[in-house]
Write a structure and sequence with these properties.
The chain has 146 residues and is mainly β. The protein has a single domain, classed as Perfringolysin, domain 4 (Immunoglobulin-like), CATH 2.60.40.1430. Helix content is 3%, strand content 48%. It has one helix and ten strands. The strands form two sheets. A six-stranded mixed beta sheet has the order 1-2-6-3-9-10, with no helix packed on it. The protein has a four-stranded antiparallel beta sheet with strand order 5-4-7-8, with no helix packed on it. Strand 9 and strand 10 form a beta hairpin. The radius of gyration is 15 Å and the shape is globular.
Length: 146
């Protein structure tokens, strides 16, 4: 995970070297703690990327392989007892770049698609996997955003 000046926390999966990437950004504008997960396939392999729980005013981004298929994006809110409630679920057979805004209150949360502000003018690419890296991508991802 990486955090930048805009309080966006970024996570990426390194399925293949130099593969073009898509991304999902969720911003929590609600009055609750939120999280989301993205499940998808690349070839025959299934991936399930989860965000941590994040507070109101924070955003989280997941980068994933542009060759993904069978995508399911689910966003959740949490009450004081840490029980989750599904806010929205979106499915697609093809990869997409989406930005979602979560809003409302715990009794009545909502989810809307918003326009994505560009990270860079160049579409993101997943960096080549470094042989010194373990399964975590923290040492490799900053190259995307510098």
């Amino acid at each position: 995970m990486i955090t930048n000046d805009n309080n966006i926390i970024i996570s990426c999966s390194l399925q293949s070297s130099n593969s073009p990437a898509k991304y999902i950004t969720v911003t929590n504008k609600g009055n609750y703690t939120a999280s989301f997960n993205l499940s998808y396939k690349v070839g025959k392999r299934l991936y399930n990327d989860r965000s941590p729980k994040f507070a109101p005013g924070k955003s989280y981004m997941i980068l994933y392989d542009a060759k993904a298929s069978s995508l399911t994006l689910s966003a959740y809110c949490y009450d004081a007892s840490d029980h989750s409630k599904l806010i929205c679920k979106k499915k697609s057979s093809k990869p997409f770049t989406k930005c979602l805004s979560l809003g409302g209150t715990l009794p009545k949360p909502n989810c809307s698609e918003v326009s994505c502000s560009p990270i860079n003018s160049i579409p993101p690419e997943l960096p080549p996997q470094n042989p010194c890296c373990c399964s975590c991508c923290c040492c490799c991802c900053p190259k995307i955003f510098n």
